[in-house]
């Protein structure tokens, strides 16, 4: 009996033995014959069940030992690999002049990284593939994105055509029309395609695919075969389309004069970021500032500051009844100019400027936790309140309406922008 079998069977057998001895003990205590018979029956039943259990246990034990064997096999293979793979498990070698860290890269590791191919064919593995095979592999592995004829599906890159468009306003740069070296095609495809499954292509598949891409560009006939032997001979269409950059020698000196360092601005400040100038598409990137876009803001909650107890829905109704939704929408656009510094909507936080929720009717300089400039503090002490007129005047020329304000914003020039921003700020309630 194997060790594992014992482990499982013994508790069962032990249980049976206990029951047996208990039964015999009772039998010895001079009970009536019938009782003894029925007890004997019971004992028999118990031992039958025990046999049953033992059988099941032995089956399970067999599975267990099979699994153990598998584990042992896997371990053996791993150990063999480890010992073959030189010193992976040994302590790091100490090397003079180094820091005693790490180990030398193994030849296999170097080979795995060393995949680049140069224009003269250096770095190419041996292999070959023809257009016909390439067509098949391309259809299977590349056509879903690049199209059956390398024409590009939807917005995926086009790999063929575009010849003689390079001087156009909209040049079509493809492997055929633009790439100067075949080695770039081989290397790029082998290294990084299919997109998402990089480095799954064999050398032969890559030769075949590259042959097929050349064929799609009408650069070879359908019986063409590409191999490590004829690779370097192949001339791409645009080989001579590139020049060595000679600007450092010929031109830089014409542009470079001593920089003028007089009458410079005393200091330079960042006043606006690209995200808020709408240069960066909305929703792009993980920028926290992007998240603060006004897109998902308007939420209406009763304002604590103004003591406004109107319920949310009533506020919405009142706003939409009184203000043109188009004006609000254009105000939301104007607000992009403010967004870098001001937040609105539920959960709005102070940025470099205070949040602007429930602004109309709010006391000037009253947002808790925001550190206002002196002029705002004074306005607050004087009990001044934002109404539409004050806001329009302030926003038109912040620095003259609030002399000494630290709001670095030059102002809104257009009357319609002022109307729009007011409508929008009214609509965001609190
Ligand atoms: C899932 C879509 C997808 C598949 C499948 C795919 N590609 Fe691409 N391919 C791309 C994308 C995306 C790019 C652009 C990648 C970039 O610019 O970083 C690209 C770029 C390329 C380029 C460079 C184009 C250029 O002009 O810059 C080549 C060549 C190319 N793929 C060949 C292949 C080949 C060959 C296969 C099949 C083995 C393949 N691709 C499979 C999506 C795909
Ligand atoms: C470069 C950052 C910046 C920009 C852009 C900016 N603000 Fe300000 N804003 C501030 C700062 C800082 C303050 C606080 C001023 C102070 O304390 O002097 C402020 C104050 C305000 C106040 C007074 C708030 C209060 O609680 O009293 C209003 C209203 C306001 N800004 C509206 C706007 C609007 C509307 C825009 C866009 C059209 C805008 N701001 C653009 C930084 C900015």
From TrEMBL:
<feature type="coiled-coil region">
    <location>
        <begin position="36"/>
        <end position="70"/>
    </location>
</feature>
<keyword id="KW-0813">Transport</keyword>
<feature type="domain" description="Cytochrome c">
    <location>
        <begin position="129"/>
        <end position="217"/>
    </location>
</feature>
<dbReference type="InterPro" id="IPR009056">
    <property type="entry name" value="Cyt_c-like_dom"/>
</dbReference>
<feature type="domain" description="Cytochrome c">
    <location>
        <begin position="326"/>
        <end position="429"/>
    </location>
</feature>
<keyword id="KW-0249">Electron transport</keyword>
<keyword id="KW-0408">Iron</keyword>
<keyword id="KW-0479">Metal-binding</keyword>
<keyword id="KW-0175">Coiled coil</keyword>
<dbReference type="Pfam" id="PF00034">
    <property type="entry name" value="Cytochrom_C"/>
</dbReference>
<protein>
    <submittedName>
        <fullName>Cytochrome c</fullName>
    </submittedName>
</protein>
<dbReference type="InterPro" id="IPR036909">
    <property type="entry name" value="Cyt_c-like_dom_sf"/>
</dbReference>
<dbReference type="InterPro" id="IPR002327">
    <property type="entry name" value="Cyt_c_1A/1B"/>
</dbReference>
<keyword id="KW-0349">Heme</keyword>
């Amino acid at each position: 009996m194997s060790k594992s079998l014992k482990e499982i069977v013994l508790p069962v057998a032990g249980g049976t033995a206990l029951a047996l001895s208990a039964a015999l003990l009772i039998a010895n205590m001079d009970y009536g014959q019938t009782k003894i018979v029925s007890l004997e029956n019971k004992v028999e039943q118990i031992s039958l069940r025990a046999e049953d259990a033992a059988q099941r246990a032995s089956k399970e034990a067999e599975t267990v030992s099979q699994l153990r064997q598998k584990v042992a096999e896997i371990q053996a293979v791993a150990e063999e690999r480890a010992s073959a793979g030189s010193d992976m498990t040994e302590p790091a070698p100490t090397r003079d002049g180094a820091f005693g860290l790490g180990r030398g890269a193994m030849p296999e590791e170097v080979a795995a990284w060393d995949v680049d191919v140069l224009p003269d064919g250096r770095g190419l593995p041996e292999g070959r593939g023809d257009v016909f095979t390439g067509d098949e592999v391309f259809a299977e592995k590349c056509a879903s994105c690049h199209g059956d004829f390398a024409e590009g599906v939807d917005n995926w890159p086009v790999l063929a055509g575009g010849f003689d468009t390079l001087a156009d306003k909209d040049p079509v740069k493809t492997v055929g029309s633009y790439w100067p070296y075949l080695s770039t095609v081989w290397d790029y495809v082998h290294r990084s395609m299919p997109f998402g499954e990089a480095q799954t292509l064999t050398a032969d598949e890559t030769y075949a695919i590259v042959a097929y891409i050349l064929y799609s560009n009408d650069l070879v006939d359908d019986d063409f075969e590409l191999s490590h032997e004829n690779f370097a001979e192949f001339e791409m269409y645009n080989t001579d389309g590139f020049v060595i950059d000679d600007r450092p020698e010929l031109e830089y000196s014409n542009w470079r004069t001593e920089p003028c360092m007089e009458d410079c601005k005393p200091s330079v400040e960042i006043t606006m970021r690209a995200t808020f100038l709408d240069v960066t598409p909305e929703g792009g990137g993980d920028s926290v500032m992007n998240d603060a876009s006004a897109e998902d803001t308007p939420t209406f909650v009763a304002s604590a500051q103004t003591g406004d107890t109107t319920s949310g829905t009533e506020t919405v109704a009142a706003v939409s009844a009184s203000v043109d939704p188009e004006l609000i929408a254009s105000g939301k656009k104007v607000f992009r100019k403010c967004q870098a510094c001001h937040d609105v909507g539920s959960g709005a936080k102070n940025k470099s400027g205070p949040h602007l929720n429930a602004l109309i009717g709010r006391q000037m300089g009253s947002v808790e936790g925001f550190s206002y400039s002196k002029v705002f503090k004074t306005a607050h002490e004087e009990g001044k309140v934002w109404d539409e007129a004050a806001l329009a005047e302030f926003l038109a020329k912040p620095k003259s309406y609030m002399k000494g304000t630290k709001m670095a914003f030059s102002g809104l020039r257009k009357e319609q922008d002022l109307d729009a921003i007011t409508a929008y700020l009214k609509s965001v309630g609190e």
